[in-house]
Write a structure and sequence with these properties.
six-stranded parallel beta sheet, hydrolase, globular, 360 residues, Lactate_DH/Glyco_Ohase_4_C, binds nicotinamide-adenine-dinucleotide, single chain, alpha/beta, L-2-Hydroxyisocaproate Dehydrogenase, Chain A, domain 2, Rossmann fold, L-malate dehydrogenase (NAD+) activity, binds (2S)-2-hydroxybutanedioic acid
């Protein structure tokens, strides 16, 4: 099987599972199948994962918590925020799924929320308003991510960390430096969530080319801000021919898709629903990897040797230790190579800014 084909199958199975998990009837049948599978397949060792959402009362946090509450891989869901988590947790706890949900509120309860967690998802922080860049959020969100990661180093140093808070290009280096300082850094465990870029690329390409959305897989590399988002249309599965005009329009739309939502929301924030969907897909991929399921791949922003930059998003194979393998960029077109050279300059500055925030 070709690599592209294997990757497309992996992406499709993730989407399929997520979709079934959202339906109460579907969930029951997935659980029955999961039970049969775990008896038959020694690789599936547990579906008892403990997951914390930090920023759980926010726009992303609430929808994401609902999706995670419906995921049969999760038995214990902890919702942490500075306010309103008792209400969100009470509300979610009435849904008849097997996962226990508990609310934690305020810094005093943060470490309790994190204790024993296998996966921590962080959407805490302020979103953009029209006219702002993601980097404009650094002044507030850098400190939030630093403090939350410091608590993780104490309460769940071995957990996988999924960082959603922007600017992801800098918040992942911040998290890394915090874990290094605490003496518990494992490069395989810290992820910048760029899944929304893949979700968008798949959607826009399927629409443009009249393809079945369930079949499409477009890798997106680089980072998660403006021109650092680089969709590799030349690696689209199934193989597609694009005119140069289509390539230009799709690339620029994918790079600006976050801004498209920010402008449409006109001051009421940025993407929350599509982001919750994307984060639920990424969380599920991490848990499937932890469970020993083979061939779980997602594009994500991680510590990387694929380029000369210390962090970079490419396709990653997820496994029992987190990022087991960071895949290379592969063959790209001259158009993509041109963007790659440009994005490296911006990404380098964002990485250095994040590292300096913790170390200076
Ligand atoms: N990675 C991506 O693709 C992506 C996509 C969309 C949004 N985002 C980012 O996600 C973040 C959240 O967006 P949102 O729309 O949910 O914002 P929001 O304002 O609706 O929610 C943020 C939540 O974080 C909470 N929070 C703030 N400081 C906190 C702290 N110290 N501890 C715990 N919780 C804290 C707030 O109380 C709030 O409930 C933003 O930074 C946004 O830019 C990233
Ligand atoms: O655009 C934003 O500010 C939020 C997020 O990064 C997105 O891509 O939607």
């Amino acid at each position: 099987m070709s690599c592209a084909r294997a990757d497309a199958l992996s992406a499709r199975s993730t989407l399929g599972r997520s979709r079934r998990g959202m339906d109460a009837r579907g969930r029951a049948s997935v659980r029955a199948r999961a039970g049969a599978r775990s008896r038959a397949n020694a690789l599936v060792t547990t579906s008892e994962y403990k997951v914390a959402v930090l920023g759980a009362a926010g726009g992303i946090g609430q929808s994401l918590s609902l999706l995670l509450k419906m995921n049969p891989l999760i038995s214990d869901l902890r919702l942490y925020d500075l306010a309103n988590t008792p209400g969100v947790a009470a509300d979610l706890s009435h849904t008849n799924t097997g996962c226990k949900v508990t609310g934690f509120m305020g810094a005093d309860q943060l470490e309790d929320a994190l204790k024993g967690c296998d996966l921590v998802v962080i959407p805490a922080g302020v979103p953009r308003k029209p006219g702002m860049t993601r980097d404009d959020l650094f002044a507030i969100n850098a400190g939030i991510v630093r403090d939350l990661c410091q608590a993780c180093t104490k309460a769940c140093p071995n957990a996988l960390i999924n960082i959603i808070s922007n600017p992801v290009n800098s918040t992942v280096p911040i998290a890394t430096e915090v874990f290094k300082k605490a003496g518990c850094y494992d490069a395989r465990k810290i992820f910048g969530v760029t899944t929304l870029d893949i979700v968008r690329s798949n959607t826009f390409v399927a629409e443009a080319k009249g393809l079945d959305i369930n079949d499409v897989d477009v890798p997106v590399i680089g980072g998660h801000a403006g021109i650092t988002i680089l969709p590799l249309l030349s690696q689209t599965y199934p193989k597609c021919e694009f005119t140069s005009d289509e390539i230009e329009k799709l690339t620029v739309r994918i790079q600006n898709a976050g801004t498209e939502v920010v402008e449409a929301k006109a001051g009421a924030g940025s993407a929350t629903l599509s982001m919750a969907y994307a984060a639920a897909r990424m969380a599920e991929a991490c848990l499937r990897g932890l469970s020993g399921e083979p061939d779980v791949y997602e594009c994500t922003y991680v510590a990387s040797n694929v380029t000369e930059l210390p962090f970079f998003a490419t396709k990653v194979r997820l496994g029992p230790n987190g990022a087991e393998e960071v895949l290379p960029i592969g063959d790209i077109s001259a158009y993509e190579a041109d963007w790659l050279a440009k994005l490296k300059v911006e990404l380098t500055g964002s990485i250095e800014k994040g590292m300096a925030f913790v170390n200076n």
